[in-house]
Design a protein that fits this description.
alpha/beta, 7 helices, two-stranded antiparallel sheet, Trp Operon Repressor, Chain A, binds S-adenosyl-L-homocysteine, 251 residues, Alpha/beta knot
């Protein structure tokens, strides 16, 4: 996969993407990262990428011109057309399902806004506009890094273990089950017995219930869309009726 980013601070991408799992995945050739400075596509002495908004108002906007030239130029450098993603609080909220869809693309091009945002006409270049959530950042770079991280870890082999990304939170519409590692008892808090039993079927049952409990407690909104059996729906209904008691044993 080729991941590209256009930004006025292109130097911020490399340090994060070089570290730990993202760095290992890149060295293993699972993806390539190219970050471009938007100012390369300006033509004035000051390399201007912003201007005041028509109609007045606070702050500056990114001009459409350099963004069009940058996206067109970068796009033409490879045969495969990139899937172009812009970032804005006005976009569709990024989630695991979007990450899974983006992970199937061969080439992603992220266009990062700054200042008060962009000339509206720039968004016509976007195949998709994504928001991280209902808050305002100073720029799209963190959003691009978040999306890149979530997407790269879905590339087969990126996590080392092929199955790691499979039973995680959101992969089946539920939150992940509670997990524990050594020691078996920590400060008077024992690990649930079943996890030490070696009975794999019992462990699987416990994990599914833990997932259902945690989702019912923290994200009941996810349950409507989740793929549950009749028995599981009844289990969840009982949990929700009991109210207070809903929750994983780790709080
Ligand atoms: N004035 C705009 C916010 C501009 S913030 C508004 O009120 O909607 C500047 C840039 O930061 C945006 O162009 C976008 O690229 C990025 N950004 C800010 N908040 C974001 C969010 N929640 N999700 C994704 N990108 C965001």
């Amino acid at each position: 996969m080729l991941i590209e980013a256009i930004s006025v601070i292109p130097e911020v991408f490399q340090p994060y993407m070089d570290a730990s799992i993202m760095g290992r995945a890149r060295k293993a050739g699972l993806y390539e990262l190219r970050a471009y400075d938007l100012r390369e596509w300006t033509h004035d002495r000051h390399r201007t990428v912003d201007d005041a908004p028509f109609g007045g108002g606070q702050g500056m906007l990114m001009k459409a011109g350099p963004i069009y030239e940058a996206v067109e130029d970068v796009s033409s450098r490879e045969e495969t057309k990139p899937y172009v993603v812009f970032f804005s609080p006005c976009g569709r909220t990024f989630d695991q399902r979007v990450a899974q869809r983006l992970a199937t693309k061969e080439r992603l091009l992220f266009v990062c806004g700054r200042y008060e945002g962009m000339d509206e006409r720039a968004y016509r270049l976007a195949d998709e506009v994504l928001s991280l959530g209902d808050y305002v950042l100073t720029g799209g770079e963190l959003a691009a890094l978040v999306v890149a991280d979530a997407v790269v870890r879905l590339i087969p082999g990126a996590l080392g273990d092929e199955n790691s990304a499979q039973d995680e939170s959101f992969s089946d519409g539920l939150l992940e089950y509670a997990q524990y590692t050594r020691p078996a008892t920590f400060r008077d808090m024992p690990v649930p017995d079943v996890l030490l039993s070696g009975d794999h079927a019992a462990v699987d049952r416990w994990r599914r219930e833990s997932s259902l409990e945690r989702t019912a407690r923290w994200r009941p909104d996810l349950l409507e869309q989740a793929d549950l059996s009749e028995g599981e729906r009844a289990f969840v209904r009982r949990l929700l009726e009991d109210g207070q008691d809903v929750g994983g044993s780790d709080g």
